[in-house]
Every structure is written in C-alpha cells, then in structure tokens.
Amino acid sequence: MYVLPIFGPRFLFSESVYLQGTTDKTVPYKYAPRIQALIPSSELITIEGGGHDLTVTHTHEVVAALVRWFSDEGVADCQATVMKKSWY
Fold it and tell me: What pTM value is reported for the model?
C-alpha cells in the first residue's frame, strides 16, 4: 500500500491544483483520479508525456498550466493567490 504525502486536513478544504504526467512511473497516471478524489477541491491538470519531475522536463507546460489556473481564479496578483491557496 502506498501512503500519499498529504500533510493534514487543510488540503481537504483549500483550493489546489494537481499536475500529473501521463508517463509517470513513480506515481502512475492511472491513480490520478483516486489522488484527486482525496482532495475534493482540487483540479487535475494532465501533462501529456510528462514523467514524475514535470518542472524539469515539461517546464513550459507546467508554467502555462499554472498561469491559466491562477488566471481562471480571477486574481491579478499571483503572490496574493499563492497565499490564498495555502501552498504550504
């Protein structure tokens, strides 16, 4: 059994984004819906062809996905959004 690194109940109540690569061998993509279900207010963003280290291998796609996600929230100041989203 694999235990997910979800650190406390605050993640269950805050908005979050979950990025998952389709070729991830560490956490296979087939588990993405189950992981997302553990965080009800999360949005799953799929990175086609991405492995486990998306920020290194698919930097542009990750940045574009996050910019889109922050923009959809209607918040002009990304720093305020990060604070609001409880990224820690």
Answer: 0.65
